[in-house]
Amino acid sequence: MTIDRAALLAALDRLGQAMERDFELLNEADGALGDGDLGVTMTRGMRAITEKAEDLPDDLGMALLACAQAFTKSSGSSYGTLLATGIMAIAKQVKGETEVSPARVSELTALARDQMQARGKAELGGKTVLDSLDAVAKATEGQSAPSEVADAAATAATEALDAFRDRKATVGRARIFGEKSVGMDDPGMLAMERIVKALADREG
């Protein structure tokens, strides 16, 4: 089974529902180490994408570009900008393609990670969304069966969140909280875990 327009639309629908459900969860996590509006950013972004979903083309690159543009217009937050950067990197890579093999999830996730790292000027290991993407890219490398890719991605996102919880944030806004960040989930990593699980259809 490949990732095509129908699969993309189904994934976007799941993601939109997940962000509505986790609105308060993300706001609260962000409120402890940031501005407290991450849930707002994610729900607005997904609503903007959902409004355009039916008009998305079969070309996955052009479809993802439209998603990135819609998300960017809905929010001026740094997290939204980073996500859009990652999506646009993937869009550029798959432009002209109407189907993408699950075997490319690792490659495309790593591409998004690298572009987001360059945009945010952050290093891996700083307890940020980059660490979540790095974990997913590594866990899905060499996997090609859809179910195995989905399982590996969802598990990696959760394990990364767990692994970094007791570390001190050294990058981004959370770093100003210093030791207070120890024992707390990074909001961006928490959001990415929710995103990955929804896209992989591995909720619960």
What attributes does this structure have?
mainly alpha, 204 residues, 67% helix, Serine Threonine Protein Phosphatase 5, Tetratricopeptide repeat
SSE arrangement:
Elements: H1 5-21, H2 23-33, H3 38-52, H4 60-74, H5 78-94, H6 105-120, H7 129-140, H8 146-165, H9 187-200
Question: What can you see in these coordinates?
Answer:
This protein has 204 residues and is mostly helical. It has a single domain, classed as Alpha Horseshoe (Serine Threonine Protein Phosphatase 5, Tetratricopeptide repeat), CATH 1.25.40. It contains nine helices and no strands. α7 runs parallel beside α9. The two termini are 23 Å apart. The relative contact order is 0.15.
Shape: globular
What is the rounded Rg? Answer: 16 Å
CATH class: Mainly Alpha
CATH homologous superfamily assignment: DhaL domain
Would you identify the CATH architecture? Answer: Alpha Horseshoe
First CA to last CA: what distance? 23 Å
Helix content: 55-70%
Query: Count of DSSP helices?
Result: 9
* DSSP E strands, number: 0
What class would the helix/strand composition place it in? mainly alpha
Low-confidence stretches: none
Number of domains: 1
According to CATH, the fold-level topology is Serine Threonine Protein Phosphatase 5, Tetratricopeptide repeat
What is the arithmetic mean of pLDDT? 92
Strand content: under 5%
Largest sheet: none
Order of helices and strands: HHHHHHHHH
